[in-house]
Amino acid sequence: MISTFLQDSAQGAEGESVKKTLSIIELVTTGGTAGIIIITILIVLMIVAIYIYFERILAIKEASKVDANFMNQIRDYVSNGKIDSAQNLCSQSNSPVSRLISKGISRIGKPLEDINTAIENAGRLEIYNLEKNVSVLATISGAAPMIGFLGTVIGMILSIFEIANSGGSIDIKTLADGLYTAMTTTVGGLIVGIIAYISYNHLVVRTDKVVYQMEANSLEFLDLLNEPS
Fold this sequence. Notes:
- The chain is mainly α.
- The chain is 83% helix and 0% strand.
- Keywords: Cell membrane, Membrane, Protein transport, Transmembrane, Transmembrane helix, Transport.
């Protein structure tokens, strides 16, 4: 009875030892040359997407820093005719908001419409700088799943090719290589696409907040100039 138990335990242990495990690296390498190439492209796209996201989020975070007392100081300086002091304050702040106000201050004395136009033109430039490379994320979010689907099509073609040339005897291992290519590239493309899509939308939301901040301060400055003396 004890020997039977030991034999059963040995068989169980042996059964566990032959269980096949598959790491991520093996999953990629077993997909064949086409799978490796496509996964490599997807990895490069993911690195680019992550780099753009963190570079932009830091730039936007820096751009959103505006002293809560900034516009009050500008109001005091402009009201008292201290234009140079107001310009110096804008130079020290060095933010999109301060650059817009600085552009408006430099046009003081001209018609209000001209000042508004100058601020709007400067605002477009600031928005362009904030959105730099963000469109690349949108491109990656759309292109990555399609690249993954391309790998799926290639993998299925390879599998069908092997079936057609098997002569009635299908090599499961060779057939599995094509299926690995199909599945791994699809998953990889979706992962990269989802990451890029979420990153893009988060950056858009954060950029919009800075744009609204710029618009609010610009309107406040124009209202200041429009106040009766």
